[in-house]
Design brief:
Number of helices: 10
CATH superfamily of the domain at 6-52 and 93-187 and 247-323: Alpha/Beta hydrolase fold, catalytic domain
CATH architecture of the domain at 6-52 and 93-187 and 247-323: 3-Layer(aba) Sandwich
Strand content: 5-15%
Helix content: 25-40%
Shape: globular
Strand order of the largest sheet: 1-3-2-4-5-6-7
Order of helices and strands: EEHEHEHEHHHHHEHEH
């Protein structure tokens, strides 16, 4: 069983909240008081992020454990070195890396899917979804409503595909970029982590000013100057110190965009995809359009004026989307 740091509050149907790469459960704080009167809210730190322990080393499967500091990648527009996108070949399962998939939990039928291949790449959407499933098992929860942000949105969709989520609300989820289009998102989060690490000693002073928060947080938030300085400092240090970051960022290189050919249970449950129109990490214009095309039965909601993390800018709107799932 997987043990994860988590915040649990409220009563009602269980609602699992999953953060993105380099983040922590506190990213959901602006919504928690709005959600907890209506849901049993479980906001988690993913393995290797926040204060959750790193996952156990994998058994040999052809996926080497990434060495910290080796996930170098050229900035967009420069000549790449060894960071080549995967060569064309058989299309793996949509929205995640090739995987044999988890053993279905007791009481649920296995979902249709591709023939087994390799075990999930450490830190990938599929791998983290496996670990989240194990955490749900430890709580005695078979199905939950799932909300996710960025990488967490991809994990929430994967849980829905597998039949572990009864409803999914994904905010700017990974997996809807065009072929090779994930490079920009990897560059942004990598640069943010590098900056947090290099400026660690100066972060308290920088985050105490609106100008400093604007400079360091504008990639993720539309209005960084209005954020709480203490929260910004803690978020930056969580990003800089996350032991799972390198593995997850490397796994993004091999993440195959979602395909309507392998959606599992998603067409049969309420699915909402919400996207900040000022998202600078996973840009709204192209990726939200791809999400509409791939998930035509889902509810697609633009969040005007919001960034990649819309929760401080539109807390009531975001909470409302989580509390009132779309009807499939």
């Amino acid at each position: 069983m997987t043990s994860l740091t988590h915040d649990r509050r409220g009563s009602g149907p269980p609602l699992l909240l999953i953060h993105g790469i380099g983040s922590r459960w506190q990213v959901w704080t602006p919504l928690l008081d709005l959600l907890s009167p209506h849901r049993d809210v479980i906001a988690i730190d993913l393995p290797g992020f926040g204060t959750s322990p790193m996952w156990s080393p994998p058994t040999p499967s052809g996926h080497p454990t990434p060495t910290p500091g080796t996930d170098h990648e050229p900035a967009p527009g420069t000549a790449p070195s060894t960071d080549h996108e995967p060569a064309p070949g058989p299309t793996p399962s949509a929205g995640r890396e090739p995987t044999s998939g988890p053993v279905p939990s007791k009481g649920r039928e296995p979902k249709p899917g591709p023939a087994p291949s390799a075990s999930p790449m450490p830190g990938s959407v599929a791998h983290l979804a496996d670990l989240v499933e194990s955490f749900l098992d430890s709580l005695g929860l078979d199905q939950v409503e799932a909300g996710g942000s960025s990488m967490g949105g991809g994990i929430a969709l994967e849980l829905g595909r597998r039949g572990r989520a009864s409803a999914v609300t994904a905010f700017s989820p990974v997996g809807f970029w065009p072929s090779g289009g994930g490079r920009w998102g990897r560059f942004v989060v990598g640069a943010a982590r590098a900056g947090s690490t290099a400026l660690d000693a100066r972060l308290p002073r920088l985050m105490s000013s609106r100008a400093g928060r604007a400079a360091l947080c504008s990639a993720f938030y539309a209005h960084p100057g209005s954020l709480d300085p203490t929260d910004c400092l803690a978020d930056a240090r969580a990003l800089g110190n996350a032991p799972g970051f390198t593995a997850s960022r490397i796994a993004f290189r091999h993440l195959t965009p979602w395909s309507s050919a392998d959606l599992g249970a998603l067409p049969h449950i309420p699915v909402t995809v919400a996207w900040g129109t000022r998202d600078a990490v996973l840009p709204y214009r192209n990726q939200a359009l791809r999400a509409r095309t791939t998930l035509p039965a889902a509810r697609h909601v633009p969040l005007p004026g919001c960034g990649h993390l819309p929760f401080p800018d539109a807390p009531r709107r975001c909470a409302d989307l989580l509390l009132h799932p779309a009807v499939p």
